[in-house]
Automatic annotation (TrEMBL):
Pfam families: DPCD. This is Protein DPCD. Belongs to the DPCD family. It comes from Pocillopora damicornis (Cauliflower coral). The lineage of its organism: Eukaryota, Metazoa, Cnidaria, Anthozoa, Hexacorallia. It comes from the Eukaryota.
């Protein structure tokens, strides 16, 4: 691997040096990472396909209290206790979630009923953010791809494609070769890990 490429795999080295446990349950390999600053990350992979289904983070508050889990990929499917008014409002609001596949980063925004030609998704001038706009000015969102940020790779407009079906806007960003190679190496690391089927097995940093 060339030196220039090795310099881009900082994320892989970060994962290797973290304290981690692995558990296989319900057809998923669940890997829990704890980083030196106390930040926690959990990833869930489908065992049969190796597809990454969930990535979520938890950071301690400034007072050292336990924070809540923030989902980078996937979504929290546990029921939420809300009064009926808030439930009705939530069901009608656009819901933004990320669900990747092996070749692309992908996002789904539910509850967007407008036709495809209303939407535009562009890379911002900073090359680090994407912006969703509607010509009827009903929806606007700026977001980043943390994987690309961690690899320090600029976004490219040509990698974006969009589709719309069933009131859902689907945004696809083709993964660049560097990201595909890094993901391959991470999967190889996961294969090496010993996983318990009825409890966590702690893995020392490699």
């Amino acid at each position: 691997m060339a030196a220039a490429a090795r310099g881009k795999f900082v994320w892989l080295e970060t994962l290797r040096s973290a304290r981690k446990t692995s558990l296989v349950q319900d057809g998923r390999q669940k890997v829990h990472y704890t980083f030196p600053d106390g930040t926690e990350m959990v990833e869930e992979y489908e065992v049969s396909s190796g597809e990454l289904l969930v990535r979520k983070w938890k950071k301690k508050s400034t007072l050292g209290r336990e924070g809540k889990w923030d989902y980078e990929i996937g979504e929290d499917l546990r029921p939420v206790n809300l009064d009926m008014e808030n439930i009705s409002e939530s069901r009608g609001n656009p819901m933004f979630t990320r669900k990747d596949n092996s070749k692309a980063f992908q996002w789904r925004i539910r509850n967007l009923p407008y036709p495809l030609e209303v939407y535009s998704v562009t890379v911002d001038d900073d090359k680090h953010s994407m912006i969703i706009r509607t010509s009827n000015k009903k929806y606007y969102k700026r977001f980043q791809i943390p994987d690309m940020e961690r690899a320090k790779v600029d976004l490219e407009q040509s990698a974006i494609s969009i589709a719309h079906a069933n009131n859902t806007l689907i945004i696809t960003y083709k993964k660049p070769p560097l990201i595909l190679e890094q993901e391959k190496l991470i999967r190889q690391e996961l294969v090496k890990m010993k996983s318990s089927r009825d409890g966590d097995v702690e893995c020392t940093p490699s």
